[in-house]
Design a protein that fits this description.
Blueprint (H helix, E strand, L loop, with lengths): L1 H13 L11 E2 L11 E6 L5 E9 L17 H10 L10 H4 L22 E5 L4 E3 L4 H28 L4 H16 L9 H16 L6 H9 L6 H31 L7 H17 L5 H22 L6 H8 L6 H14 L7 H29 L18 H10 L1
Antiparallel strand pairs: 1-5, 2-3, 3-4, 4-5
Helix pairs in contact: 1-4, 4-5, 4-6, 5-6, 6-7, 6-8, 8-9, 8-10, 9-10, 10-11, 10-12
Amino acid sequence: MRRAIAEHERTLEKDHRRPDLTTLSMSIKDRTEPCYSGASHLHRLECGHTVHTEQVSLCGRNCTTPITNSTAFACTLCERQKMKQSSRIRYRSPRVSELILPNFPLFNQSHVPVIMRARGCDIAVVTSSKYFFVPSTPEDIAAYRVNNNRRLEGLIEDVVDVAKDMGFSQTTINGITDGLGTCVDHQHLWVDATYEQLAAMVLYLSAVRAGIEQPGMLNQLSMCVGASMKGIKQLLPAVSKLLIDRSARLAIADFMQTFEKTCPAYQKHSKDLARLQLKLWRLVLNRCLFPFEFIAANWRHIVTSCIYAVTTVNDVYFDTEEISAAIGARSPSIDGEDMNTYLLSIIVDDKAYQIKAMNTKARRRRKLHARYLRCTGRHVVATAPAPALAFPLHCGFGSLSLHDHFDTLVAW
């Protein structure tokens, strides 16, 4: 089926006209509106996704209008997203256009008691306020994917035009388009947000970072890209946090490229150092060690301090000015030195940030595992059933014929 979808996509891409999804969609009428009067073909779940059932079914306890005693629905998109996050499915984008593909492992509920199992249902993609479709045939899936890609490409062109009108440099514009792609990849965090709303927020946050914010700019940018203002302000903190996290990770990657050139002796530990730097950065971001407004304004200095603390703990000494130059940050002030000391005090006695301690722990774990395997092998040999006796105990060698000897040895 995946090959058939690819063939239909190539056929549709040759036609520059956008596929008309209304020709393959089902019109939403009475009894097919999401959770219509507690029983419908369509159900809107708490996660934000929509599911479809062949027969009219009662709402589940995970619907937006829940029925407490009713069985919950199994959201296929959420389960596939969990597979992606748990690395069961690799090299797969978490976008909806990828999650609707059929070549995913089946959602297994065999370990769940029967009374607690979720109801089976189909993925339903709502294309507008009047239409939806169930992506079941290769033609429907290919049409949706091509239409979605063209819609995103057209939006990126509009975003680039708006960014140029705002006076951004080409480097900043590239960062804006990459940020929009990151937000689309993480749309499971904000299922109800449209691509246009994400584009408006990325443009607005870029203007805030550049210091050219003006009153009413978010409304103007939303109008430029055709986005609705409904719920957009509530999503700004989450989108801002995601973009800052992405920028910080790229900064650490830039530093590690410089690190491998300047410290070739520590090149074999570069991946471990990068992992520890990301670990400390996530600790700062998720545990709110600093106010978020401070992180948003000084994230480069915080990343510099994270790198400085991790490298110092592992006896690799860098000057903060070298680190700042590698990640494109200004030289830290006195507050930056205080930040270095603060983060260093957090991890200085924590062996989880020391490569030597990590290697010792990993070596000990391997030894214990090998010892466990040896003990398990001995136990299997010890508990293996002993072979049957070649000769019956009640018979002597003289009472056995040659034929009996042969049969007994073959049986043994």
